[in-house]
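A common beginner's mistake is to predict each chain separately and then try to dock the pieces by hand. The better habit, illustrated here, is to supply every component at once so that their relative placement is modeled jointly.
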Amino acid sequence: MTQLPPPSAKKLGLVIDLDTCVGCHACVVSCKGWNTENYGAPLSDQNAYSGAASGTFLNRVHSYEVQPDEGAAQLIHFPKSCLHCEDAPCVTVCPTGASYKRAEDGIVLVNESDCIGCGLCAWACPYGARELDAKEGVMKKCTLCVDRIYNENLPEEDRQPACVRTCPAGARHFGDLGDEDSDVSKLVAERGGFDLMPEQGTKPVNKYLPPRPKDEMPEFDVLAPYLEPIAQDGKGFVGWLDKALSALPGGAK
Amino acid sequence: MHPASSVIIFNTFSGLGFGLLFWLGLGALVPTGLSAFIWFAIAYLFAVGGLIASTFHLGHPERAIKAFSQWKTSWLSREGVCAVFALVVMAIYGAGLVFTNTRLGLIGWIGGLASLGVVFTTSMIYTQMKTVPRWRHWTTPAMYLILALGGGALLGGQVKIASVLFIIAGILQMYAWGTGDTRLAASGTSMATATGLGHIGQVRAFEPPHTGTNYLMREFIHVVGRKHADQLRIIVIGLAFILPIILLLLPHHHVFAALAVLSHIAGVLTLRWLFFAQAEHVVGLYYGKR
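With all components supplied together, the output reads:
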């Protein structure tokens, strides 16, 4: 049913640390790998070996430049996948009931055998978390690796989403954001985790941790006073040229 | 938004067809016998033809029957239910006129209002999208309804009604465009809120996630429409409203009437193309685009 279930106590999701992410795209590759080989329709590519390559991905890493009012610009890598929203607009628009939110843990999934590929859920999602697979004609989205996290055939340490398991920087964390005492909830509280586009009213479960403020280097070079600019009184042809041009109307002093 | 031709054809022709069914149902024109058959055939050709065209953009049209199930939450589902209801009721009403020359007034009213209901539910599919601020406004359903009513009246030969509705539609459309241009900025969604990095400084997309394009960029980022919006708006107002009114004011002749219909259809096709092509989806902000 595309009616949203009452909010679940358990809210499984990701916490992504924008301070730690190095933008290596390993999560993108491991996500594509796991979700092509396992649950649901594979994530297809079109013209994979040509100039016009395109394909379905459930997780993509953007990079942004942020320019503060003063000081140097920062480069921030920004992984983005489904945020498993509590008020998921992608679920209620679905005409067939293929799109649903699990009552037990809040994971938003697509029942691919019911999906007619109308694309309306992707329209309703402000985050670009859903992509219609060009080959299969069904909507694909992050499953939070539902076929890993509960999978008792996997060793304990592998029972987390592929993107989290693979992240070499430790920038991705998985857990229950409905439990105030969970590691991920503590991390969010400690670091000031935030929602993407809160004004859209989707109440995302996934949280982002902001980049930490940059260190400021104090000026402590003992030689600096001795390194005054030296070309105060240029000599020779260049010195004469400098003075002559400065003397012209509008010349730089 | 990507202007998909199947959806533009659906919106244009189903709107006209259901608009004509509305006026038939209300008894603005009461044809009987063979003439009734022809009128209803035209209306059904437009309404059903458009609905069939709309299934061409689906990934799995063979499962379309499932789309009738989620009417409690989904406007697309409500549209499907409403369309089947309206078409069945109007078929009964039409059969009365064609075969027994009797007008089943109450059934006509129910079918006529349901036909308008189809247009309204269609419009709400777009209006509900918080992600497309330009559409999320009362002018979206108002324009859908008035275009269906006006176009239906034109097809049904209701010259006076059509002319008045076209004047209102033209003014309303210009108001919708004018106010729509600033609605993304006014929505409060920006690159700053999309990334949550606005508190640090000015956010600029530095590097996209991949060198090529993807489904999201193809579906949601379309810039050509806005580039030529001014010219296209003049074309729409001229073809959809002004030229048909002038042709209707001329001495009555079938050629002028046919030209008025063709001009209106061309104008509404352009209007619908622009409706999608100039609309900005907030996901474009992640790519630093609109």
